[in-house]
C-alpha cells in the first residue's frame, strides 16, 4: 500500500491552473523526485499536502486515511515534515532553541536544555548530521542551516521529509555529503520527496521520479529505467538548444571593466578583500561561489551603491571610484540585480514608470521641464515588443506580471543604449526555462556587441555555459581565475567554492 | 465583476455610515427626519452656507495636499497643524514688519513666507528622518506642540495688541489681507490660492522628473538607491513642500479670515488633513473632493445642531466611522472583492 497518495489535485491561482488533475504516489522507504521547471507546480503540490494552500479539489490519502491538513502544524502531527527553499530559522536563536521552538516539552516553560541537547545530539549522530547545538543560526553556513532544518523534522518524528530544492545553495561536495545523509534516512525507513529541476541529482539519488509540466503530471517512472535525456524531454517537452559562444576578439583600444585591488570594509568587517579583475570588451567573466560570499557586495561596489574602502574601479580607462550611482549608469553600466522586486523595480508602478527609473532625467524625454508622456509610452511600447514582454497593457502595475516578464523589463531598461558593461547578479534566478534562455541569449548578444559582462550566479551550470573565464569567490576573496575550457575540473572549482584551496591544489597536482 | 464588487463595497460603507448616523441621532433623542433635513439645508440652504463650505475647505485642501505630497514619498506628516501655525506666524510677522508694501508685493511675499516657515518646520523632521532614520511620525507630532506654544507666547508678548486685553495681535494692514471674492460672504482669495496649489502640485508630482523621483522613493526606496535616485534628497524635498503647503494654509486663515493672529486659529485642520489625504488617496483631485466633503459635513452638522439639537461632535464621530470602514473595507467586504 502506498504511504501517501494524492489524487486528481486541482489548484488555481487567479484563474491560472497551478495544478491540474495531478496524481502522486509515494511508497514507504523511497526517495522520490518531483521534477519540473520553475512554475510547473511542484512546490504548489507539496504546499497543498503540507497544509499551506487549500486545494480546490482532489483527495489526499496518508497511510490509507483521507486527510486534509489545515496547517503545517497538523501535517507535522501526522509525521510529515517539509524543508522550504528559504529556511525558516530564527537567526538570533541557537540551534537547539530553533529545533525545540514551539514544542511544549517536559518542564515547559522552563525546559531542561541539557536533556534536550542530548536528545538532539542523539538524532543528529544517528544520521551523521554533525551540528553544534549551542551555535547561533546566524553563524552557520547554508549547508549547516539545512542540517538544522532536517534535524528539526527528525526530532519531531517525521516519517516523510519533503525537501524543496535542497541542493540549490550547496557546493558539489556538500551535495554529496547531503546525499549520503538521505541514503541513511532511507535505510532507516524514512521516505523523502525532493523537489528539484536538476536532472543529474535525480539520477544519482532517487528511486522514482514524477515529472510535472505546466501544472500537469507527465509521468511517474522508476529512475533507473530512464536516461537524463529522456527525463529532460519529459520535463521540458522539447529538446534544449545548446548555446554557442563565438571566440572573443579582444578590443585592443579599450580596457573594459577593471577592478584594481578593491576592498570593502563595513562595520569593521572585511567584506571584500583586494579583488583584482579585468573584463575585456566582449568578454563574459562568470563568478562562481556559494550564495553570501560577497557577491552582492561586489556588484554593489561596482555600481557605486556601496563605497569601496580601497582600490580603483575603472570603465574604459576612467576611474569611477568617486562617482555616484547615477554617474555610473550614465557612463554605461547596466545592472541586473538578484532581487528584482526590491532592487530593480517599483512593483506598484506600471511599465512606463518602471522604464522611467533610468530615463526620467534623460533630456530626450523632457519638454520644458515636464516628462513627455507620449515619448515615454512609445519607448516602453518598443521595449515590450523588442523583448516580448507579456502584459495586459502599459498601465499594468509590475506586481501583476510574472517573474520572467518582470525580468525582461529590467533587461529592456538596463540594456537600452548599448551599455559598455553589464553587471548581472543571478539574472535567471526563479525564471522558467524559456525566460532563462532569453536572458542568456541577451547576455551573449551584448557580448558580441563588445560589452564587458560580469555574470554572478550560484548556478554553476549557468556560469560554465556562458563565461569566457571563471572566477571563484569565497568569503569576499577571489580564490582563482580560470579560462572556461573543457579541461576545467568541476571538483576543483567545487573545493574552491568551499574555501578549501589547499585540497584543491593537491587535487590539481 | 470585480469592479462591480468594489462599487458595492463603497455603497456598503455609505449604508453602514448612514445606519450609524441614524442610531446616533436617535440616541440623543432628536427626530431623524428633522436632523437630516436641517443637515442638508445647513449645506445647500443658502448662498452663504455653500460659500461657508468652501471657506472651511480652503485650509483642508492646502493641509491635505501637503500631507498627500509627503505620503507619496513616504514622509508621514502628522505635523500639518504645527506647520499651519508657523505659516500664520510668518504672515503676521511679515505684515507688521514691512507694513508699507503695496498689496501686489505683499500678498505674494506673505504666501512665500508662509511656505518657507511651514516648510522649515517640516524639513527639520524630514532631515532627521533622512539622515538618522528618526521616525517623522513622532517628531512632526511633537513639533505641533512647539509651534502652537510659540503662537501662544507671541500673542502675549511681541505681537500682542496693546489696546486689547485678550491675547491676540492687532489687525493686519489692509495690504496684507486676502480680498473677499464673493460679496456678502466670508469666501476669500485663499480658496483660489488653494486651487492653484492643487494644479501646481499635480503638475509637479505627476509630470516632472522631480515628482517622479518623489513617488518612486515613496514606493521603493531601495530600488531608487540602486538606480541612482537620492532617497535623502527626495525626502528633504517632499517634506519641504509638504510643510510649505500647510504653511500657506496658515497664511490663508490669518490673511483671509481672521485678519489677525490669535490662539486656536485652527480647530485641528492639520489633523483632519490626514483624513483628507487618506480619503483622497493622496491625489490632488481626490484631496479637493474629500476636503469639500468633510467641510460640508462640518457645516451641515452646525445646521443640524441649530435646528434639531444634535451636537456637532456627531460630525467627528461620522468622520471616524468612515475612516475606519474605508481602512477595513478590504477585510469587511472580502467576499465581494475576491473572485469567489
Commentary on this structure:
Chain A is of the alpha/beta class. Helices cover 34% and strands 25% of the residues of chain A. Chain A has 18 helices and 22 strands. In chain A, the strands form five sheets. Chain A has a six-stranded mixed sheet, with helices on both faces. Chain A has a six-stranded mixed sheet with strand order 16-19-20-13-21-22, with helices on both faces. A four-stranded antiparallel sheet of chain A has the order 2-1-4-5, with helices on one face. Chain B has 340 residues and is an all-alpha fold. Chain B has 15 helices and no strands. Chain B has helices spanning 2-27, 32-44, 47-72, 80-97, 103-132, 136-154, 190-207, 209-219, 221-226, 231-258, 269-279, 284-308, 313-327, 329-332, 334-337. The radius of gyration of chain B is 21 Å and the shape is globular. The N and C termini of chain B lie close together (10 Å). Chains A and B meet through helix 10, helix 11, helix 12 and strand 18 of A and helix 8 and helix 9 of B.
N-to-C span of chain A = 53 Å
* Beta strands of chain A, count: 22
Count helical runs of chain A: 18
Quote the distance from N terminus to C terminus of chain B: 10 Å
Question: Largest interface, per-chain counts?
Answer: A-B, 31 and 19 residues
Determine the strand fraction of chain A and express it as a percent band. 25-35%
**Main sheet specs of chain B:** none
Number of helices of chain B: 15
The parts of chain B where pLDDT drops under 50 for at least 5 residues are none
Biggest sheet statistics of chain A: 6 strands, mixed
Topology pattern of chain B, helix = H, strand = E: HHHHHHHHHHHHHHH
Average predicted confidence as pLDDT of chain B: 92
Shape of chain B: globular
Mean pLDDT metric of chain A: 86
Amino acid at each position: 500500500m502506498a504511504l501517501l497518495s494524492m489524487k486528481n489535485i486541482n489548484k488555481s491561482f487567479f484563474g491560472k491552473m497551478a495544478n491540474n488533475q495531478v496524481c502522486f504516489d509515494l511508497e514507504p522507504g523511497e526517495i522520490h523526485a518531483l521534477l519540473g521547471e520553475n512554475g510547473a507546480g511542484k512546490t504548489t503540490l507539496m504546499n497543498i499536502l503540507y497544509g499551506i494552500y487549500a486545494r480546490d479539489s482532489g483527495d489526499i490519502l496518508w497511510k490509507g486515511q483521507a486527510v486534509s491538513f489545515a496547517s503545517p502544524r497538523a501535517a507535522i502531527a501526522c509525521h510529515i515534515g517539509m524543508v522550504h527553499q528559504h529556511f525558516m530559522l530564527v537567526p538570533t536563536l541557537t540551534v537547539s532553541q530553533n529545533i525545540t521552538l514551539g514544542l511544549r516539552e517536559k518542564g515547559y516553560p522552563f525546559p531542561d536544555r541539557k536533556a534536550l541537547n542530548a536528545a538532539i545530539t542523539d538524532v543528529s549522530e544517528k544520521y551523521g548530521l554533525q551540528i553544534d547545538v549551542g551555535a547561533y543560526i546566524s553563524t552557520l553556513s547554508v549547508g549547516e542551516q539545512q542540517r538544522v532544518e532536517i534535524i528539526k523534522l527528525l526530532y519531531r518524528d517525521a516519517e516523510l521529509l519533503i525537501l524543496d530544492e535542497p541542493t540549490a545553495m550547496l557546493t558539489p561536495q556538500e551535495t554529496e555529503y547531503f546525499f549520503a545523509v538521505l541514503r541513511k534516512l532511507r535505510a532507516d525507513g524514512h521516505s523523502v520527496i525532493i523537489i528539484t529541476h536538476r536532472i543529474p541529482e535525480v539520477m544519482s539519488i532517487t528511486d522514482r521520479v514524477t515529472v510535472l509540466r505546466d501544472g500537469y503530471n507527465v509521468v511517474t517512472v522508476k529512475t533507473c529505467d530512464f536516461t537524463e535525456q529522456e527525463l529532460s524531454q519529459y520535463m521540458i517537452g522539447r529538446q534544449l538548444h545548446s548555446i554557442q559562444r563565438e571566440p572573443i576578439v579582444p578590443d585592443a583600444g579599450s580596457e573594459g571593466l577593471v577592478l584594481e585591488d578593491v576592498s570593502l570594509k563595513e562595520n569593521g568587517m572585511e567584506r571584500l578583500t583586494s579583488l583584482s579583475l579585468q573584463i575585456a570588451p566582449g568578454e563574459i567573466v562568470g563568478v562562481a561561489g556559494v550564495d553570501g560570499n560577497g557577491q552582492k557586495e561586489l556588484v554593489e561596489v561596482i555600481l557605486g551603491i556601496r563605497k569601496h574602502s580601497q582600490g580603483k574601479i575603472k570603465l574604459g580607462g576612467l576611474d569611477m571610484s568617486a562617482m555616484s550611482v547615477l554617474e555610473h549608469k550614465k557612463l554605461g553600466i547596466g545592472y541586473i540585480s538578484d532581487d528584482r522586486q526590491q532592487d530593480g523595480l517599483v512593483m506598484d508602478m506600471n511599465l512606463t514608470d518602471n522604464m522611467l527609473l533610468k530615463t526620467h532625467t534623460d533630456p530626450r524625454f523632457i519638454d520644458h521641464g515636464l516628462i513627455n508622456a507620449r515619448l515615454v509610452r512609445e519607448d516602453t511600447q518598443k521595449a515590450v515588443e523588442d523583448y516580448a514582454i507579456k502584459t495586459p497593457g502599459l498601465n499594468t502595475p509590475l506586481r501583476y506580471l510574472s517573474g520572467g516578464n518582470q525580468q525582461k523589463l529590467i533587461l529592456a531598461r538596463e540594456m537600452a543604449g548599448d551599455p559598455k558593461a553589464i553587471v548581472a547578479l543571478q539574472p535567471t534566478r526563479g525564471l522558467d526555462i524559456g525566460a532563462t534562455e532569453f536572458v542568456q541569449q541577451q547576455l551573449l548578444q551584448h557580448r558580441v556587441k563588445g560589452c564587458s559582462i560580469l555574470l554572478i550566479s550560484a548556478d554553476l551550470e549557468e556560469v560554465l555555459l556562458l563565461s569566457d573565464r571563471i572566477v571563484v569567490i569565497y568569503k569576499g576573496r577571489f580564490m582563482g581565475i580560470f579560462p572556461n575550457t573543457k579541461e576545467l575540473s568541476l571538483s576543483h572549482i567545487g573545493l574552491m567554492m568551499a574555501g578549501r584551496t589547499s585540497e584543491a591544489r593537491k587535487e590539481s597536482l | 465583476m470585480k469592479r462591480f464588487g468594489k462599487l458595492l463595497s463603497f455603497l456598503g460603507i455609505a449604508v453602514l455610515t448612514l445606519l450609524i448616523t441614524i442610531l446616533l441621532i436617535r440616541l440623543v433623542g432628536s427626530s431623524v427626519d428633522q436632523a437630516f433635513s436641517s443637515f442638508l439645508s445647513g449645506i445647500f440652504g443658502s448662498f452663504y452656507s455653500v460659500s461657508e463650505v468652501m471657506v472651511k475647505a480652503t485650509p483642508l485642501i492646502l493641509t491635505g495636499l501637503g500631507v498627500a505630497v509627503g505620503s507619496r514619498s513616504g514622509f508621514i506628516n502628522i505635523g500639518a497643524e504645527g506647520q499651519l501655525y508657523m505659516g500664520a506666524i510668518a504672515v503676521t510677522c511679515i505684515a507688521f514688519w514691512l507694513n508699507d508694501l503695496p498689496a501686489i508685493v505683499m500678498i505674494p511675499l506673505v504666501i512665500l513666507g508662509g511656505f518657507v516657515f511651514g516648510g522649515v518646520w517640516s524639513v527639520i523632521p524630514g532631515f532627521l528622518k533622512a539622515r538618522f532614520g528618526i521616525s517623522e511620525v513622532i517628531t512632526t507630532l511633537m513639533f505641533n506642540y512647539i509651534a502652537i506654544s510659540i503662537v501662544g507666547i507671541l500673542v502675549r508678548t511681541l505681537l500682542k495688541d496693546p489696546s486689547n486685553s485678550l491675547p491676540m495681535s492687532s489687525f493686519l494692514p489692509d495690504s496684507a489681507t486676502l480680498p473677499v471674492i464673493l460679496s456678502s460672504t466670508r469666501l476669500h482669495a485663499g480658496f483660489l490660492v488653494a486651487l492653484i496649489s492643487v494644479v501646481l502640485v499635480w503638475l509637479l508630482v505627476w509630470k516632472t522628473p522631480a515628482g517622479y523621483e518623489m513617488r518612486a522613493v515613496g514606493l521603493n526606496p531601495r530600488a531608487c538607491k540602486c538606480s541612482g535616485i537620492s532617497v535623502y534628497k527626495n525626502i528633504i524635498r517632499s517634506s519641504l513642500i509638504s510643510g510649505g503647503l500647510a504653511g500657506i494654509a496658515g497664511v490663508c486663515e490669518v490673511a483671509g479670515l481672521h485678519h489677525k493672529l490669535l490662539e486656536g486659529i485652527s480647530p485641528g485642520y492639520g489633523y483632519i488633513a490626514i483624513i483628507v489625504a487618506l480619503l483622497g488617496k493622496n491625489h490632488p483631485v481626490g484631496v479637493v473632493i474629500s476636503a469639500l466633503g468633510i467641510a460640508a459635513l462640518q457645516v451641515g452638522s452646525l445646521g443640524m445642531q441649530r435646528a434639531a439639537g444634535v451636537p456637532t461632535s456627531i460630525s467627528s464621530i461620522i468622520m471616524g466611522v468612515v475612516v475606519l470602514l474605508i481602512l477595513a473595507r478590504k477585510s469587511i467586504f472580502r467576499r465581494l472583492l475576491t473572485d469567489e
